């Protein structure tokens, strides 16, 4: 949401990319955020419900085996996640029909290749893990890769910021996946419920996306364009490879140090912790097409960066800290005693999720400017840190060592973000940004801790936990309003189409 006090970007140039209608870019972006929030928060809730259902129906060992199957089938996921959709949104070709057909061709070829590689490597991972039973379910799960290629038409609506259409089509995947997974899980299908539900959901969404595509599908392969996409994507490939390598190291080492139950605890903590990132993703996905349209204006990029971060932190920071406070209650009253092993990790991942919200969407701004190399540097350093710290500690201290190692990885991540952001934005101050992010959550945490002090360590009940959670939420809302009311009013003004000139970021 650019500052109205700055010179406005060329509207005609923006309208060639974005379906603004009679709104300004600020108003369109703000409305898009609400649309994405309405869909994404609801779908994130469905995703969390899916995990709760499975956690209740599966044992820790079954959940751990599912993790082994998933990461074996997607072991080379870095070959799949190469930023093709980001590049399509960033490009500015005159003939968008041809541009989409070329991008779709590259994506289809890429995913077919990944599918074949996945099938070929599954027996190798089965031998590595000593679990031949993962081969067949892994092959079935790999079919999702082909189905995901059919979702490419969603890129068109995303680039044009037609979020309602895009999100409605995208929601078919998680909704269908949840229904199928829940039915099969209740029927006793075990980890197969996750596999079949995931594949069916992705294929259903892909087929509907093809029907809704505004352009005819044609085979268009250009070597020059392939080179252009490769130049944009190779750092993303390396970054993704580093992330996958960390997961594989955790599984391989975890088999020897914490067992399947421990791997299941790691997976559960990571998935619940990632729920804090949902709003991050909403904001990032909304502003990315807009910042691509104004990527030559550093002043507008900086304001969009600061304000989008502040908006997402209103959710991410409180959620992460709430997980620290209420993880034992979550396990006792929701997941069940079989997940007691995961309490400490849930709390640690909650704290990490809260801190990881700081400057969370920095990568989107480097993607928009075409400079993707910092992504590779960041994930590469994280991999080195994980191998040097987390792996040895897992052998010596099990899950505790894994948690300490992951905390060190997060510290490296935050330092790299600060380094590159100060080079992109001369006015960025990481410490000030961090203090502002944490401030609204301090009174809420203090209120809960004070309430527990008054309780004096008495018997813990579900009613007491709910009362503390309500208190935490109420204090958070009040503190957020007091510290960020100017920004909230500004965003509401954009939604009403009559925002006043905003205060400096």
Write the layout of secondary structure elements.
Blueprint: H1 11-15, H2 25-57, H3 60-73, H4 84-90, H5 96-129, H6 135-149, H7 154-159, H8 163-170, H9 172-186, H10 192-212, H11 223-257, H12 259-273, H13 278-293, H14 298-335, H15 343-355, H16 362-368, H17 373-424, H18 430-438, H19 441-455, H20 462-496
Helix pairs in contact: 2-8, 2-9, 2-13, 2-20, 3-6, 3-12, 5-6, 5-11, 6-10, 9-10, 11-12, 11-17, 12-15, 13-14, 13-16, 14-15, 14-18, 14-19, 14-20, 15-17, 19-20
Sum this structure up briefly.
By secondary structure, the protein is mainly α. It contains 20 helices and no strands. 78% of the residues lie in helices and 0% in strands.
Could you walk me through the main structural features you see in this protein, from its secondary elements to its overall organization?
This protein is mainly α and 505 residues long. Helices cover 78% and strands 0% of the residues. It is built from 20 helices and no strands. Helix 2 packs parallel to helix 9 and helix 6 (135-149) runs parallel beside helix 10. The longest helix is centred in the last third of the chain and has 52 residues, at 373-424. It starts with 10 loop residues before the first helix and ends in a 9-residue tail after the last helix. Mean pLDDT is 82; it is low at 1-7 and 499-505.
SS summary, helix count = 20
Low-pLDDT regions: 1-7, 499-505
Oligomer: single chain
Radius of gyration: 23 Å
Taking the alpha carbons of the first and last residues, their distance comes to: 11 Å
Shape: globular
In total, the number of strands is 0
Order of helices and strands: HHHHHHHHHHHHHHHHHHHH
| SSE class | mainly alpha
Q: What proportion of the residues is helical, as a percent range?
A: over 70%
The biggest sheet, with number of strands, parallel, antiparallel or mixed sense and barrel status, is: none
Beta-strand portion reads: under 5%
Instruction: Tell me, rounded to a whole number, the average pLDDT.
Output: 82
